[in-house]
Amino acid sequence: MAVKVASDWLNSCSGCEVAIVDLGERLLTLLELVEFVHIPVLMDHKYYGQMGEGKELTIPEADVGIISGGIRNAEHLEVAIEMREKCKYIVALGSCATHGGIPSLSNTYGNEDILQRYYSTMTTDQGPERPKDGIPPLLDGSYALDERIKVDIFLPGCPPHPDQVFEALLSLLEGRPPNLLTTSVCDTCPAVREGKGDVKQLKRFLTPPVVQDYAKPMEGLRCLLEQGYLCMGPVTRAGCGGDLVNPRCISALVPCRGCNGPVKQDGNQMLDMLNALASNGIELGSLPEVTSLQRFSGAHCMLRQPK
After folding, report:
1. Does the pTM exceed 0.85?
2. Are 280 and 197 spatial neighbours (Cβ–Cβ below 8 Å)?
3. Where are the domains of the chain?
4. What's the fold here for domain 3-104+134-174?
5. Are residues 95 and 158 in contact, defined by beta-carbon separation less than 8 angstroms?
6. 38 to 50, 87, 154, 273: CA distances (angstroms)
7. 289: burial class by Cβ within 10 Å (0-12, 13-18, 19+)?
8. Which of 68, 93, 189, 212 lies at a 20 to 30 A Cα distance from 15?
9. Do 77 and 53 form a contact (C-beta atoms < 8 A)?
10. CA–CA distance, 73 with 263 (Å, rounded to integer)
11. Predicted confidence (pLDDT) per residue in 136-190, tens digit
């Protein structure tokens, strides 16, 4: 008997759904074992009935519920609650769902400030009217899923690597805990750490890092943080490289931006990174701006005071 799966997207960009498609031939293997009963990105299933005859939002019962995106407005919250009630297990797919993601940067502003900036202009032109009809009201901030509903499996990443997605789904089908990395990006990074502490200030990523051989850039590459670039590897969860292990961004000679969220689910990337920089003698005043340390994990009251 096929396992029933429901999937929905909330405050997201659909990148996590692309990661599912990137499973490639493995997706065909999964489709032989599961039955999608609700997945707006692939099939037409209306919340209020196919003809809009329903009075309440409903989602079919399922064994597994996959939700990407965080919760920003009343509709997102309603869908998340309905998914939780109808699904035995909930998978938070992507950093927006697990830690707020990029949208949670809005938590540094109030709703009125955001709307005023969006619907006004610095010119003499009259700004457009704010839409009202049929628009779900905003909540007071951008929330990760587990702030409002119970989550069983957290699968961070922006987006998660297809290898990680496949392992999480396969583990549910096989009735076992997923085998996901719980170490930091630094623990899987092949870059050489000399630990000399000769870098005191950070620099903007405007020039490429020094490598010994661009034909084999990862061989002998010195730690990007030790080269003076802000690399979030020490405080970011590993797994972005999938089964190949090597971090995706660093493999492209780009410093880690922290998209996989904190190493521990309840970690604080900003605080942990500030501690890491200070302990290495790097001047905190050389940071371009502090919010970048929390750009993917601004939910859980990390960028605003709890109410």
Report:
1. yes
2. yes
3. 3-104+134-174, 182-307
4. Rossmann fold (3.40.50)
5. yes
6. 12, 11, 20, 40
7. exposed
8. 189
9. no
10. 28
11. 999 999 999 999 999 999 999 999 999 999 999 899 888 899 999 899 999 999 9
